[in-house]
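Researcher: Structure for this, please.
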Amino acid sequence: MLQVAKHLGLSQATVSRVLNGKGHEFISPATRRRVLDAARDLGFDSGRVRHAELAGRHQVVALWIRNPDYSYYASIVHHLQRVAAQDDFAVVVCGYRDLSADAPFDPDRLPGWSTARWPVDGVIAVDCPHRQHAFIESRRGEGVPAICGIGCDADPRIDNVVYDMNSPPYEIVKRMIDSGRRRVLHMTAYVSLVRVREARAAGYARAMEEAHLKASTVVAPEETPAAAKRAFLDYVRTTGVVPDAVFCLHDVIALGVLQAARELGLSVPRDLAIAGYGGIRELDLIEAPIHTVKLPTDELADNAWRVFKQRLLTPSATPQRVTIQPQVNFRDHHGPADHGHSKPARGVAVGASAAPMPM
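Model: Predicted structure, C-alpha cell format:
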C-alpha cells in the first residue's frame, strides 16, 4: 500500500480508502482509477483490486432478452450468467415473448431497471433495439448508464456487440446454388426483427440474381416450426412447385421445413437441401444434415461482458462497437436428385396455379 502511495505521490490514507472500497464521496473516479491501475501493475493482490473496483455497486445486471425460450437466446443467457458469476455479479433475466417486434411500447414499464424495486448496475440488451431506444430516450439529460447491446442493431449512443449480418446469407445461398440447386426458396416470417429479415432477404436475392435464377419467398405468420411447416406445405400444394433447396430465416424455421419435407416424402438432402441460421444445438440431434450459419453465442456473451465491465469502470468513455463474424456450416451431402423440371411430391397436384407470397 505504501509502495502504491509513493509511486503515485498520494497519501497512504487515500490509497487505503480506494483499496478498501471507501471514499467514493470525496475521491474522484480518475484518482480511483490511477490507484487501482497502479496496484495491479505493482503486483497488488488481484482479488482485492477487483473487489475495490466493484465496491459500492449492486453487482446485479439486468438482461433484457427477446424470446428467451429459443435455443439461441437461451445459450446467451446461460453463458452470460456463467461469466458474470466469475465477477460475483448476478444476472436478472427480463425476457419477453415478442409477437410484434416493431410495435410501440411504454418505456415506463421497462423491466429490470427500478432503483426502488430491483436496483441494478446496468443492462445488457439482446435483440431489443426498440426497448434500448425507449430507455435511452427516457433518461435524456440524466446520462446513459452502463448499457450494452447484443445482436443485429448497433445504437451509436451505447456499447454494442454485433454480428455481421450481410455476407453469411449470400454465402450460404450461393453455396447451395453452386452445389447444383436451382429452385431455391426463401422461408421467412413476419414477426422477426426488420433488419434481420431484410439482411437475409437481400443476401438471398443477390445470390439468386447473380445465378439468373427466379427468386421466390414464403412468409410464415409466426417464428415456429409448426407455422413454417404449414406455410411450406401450402406453397407446394398451391403452386405445384417443389423446391430443391430452402434458405430459412433461422434454424427454428428450418426445423419446420424439415417436418414438411418428411410429410411430402422428400429426402433431405437428396431431394431438398435446407439451410437455417443460428447454429442451435438441436441441429446436432437430427440425422438430416441441415446447413446453418452459426452465431457464436459464447463469443457474443464474452465480449458483451468485457465491454459492460469497462463501461462500469469508465462511464464517460467513447462507446465501443465489436463485430463478430458468424461461421457458415455447410454440411457434407449429396447433390440434388435431378436438375430438370420441378419434381412433384407425394400428394401434390402439379398444375395448380397460385403465386408465391411476395418478398
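Researcher: Any notable elements?
Model: Residues 99-103, 334-359 have pLDDT under 50 and may be disordered. The domain at 167-294 is CATH 3.40.50.2300 (Rossmann fold).
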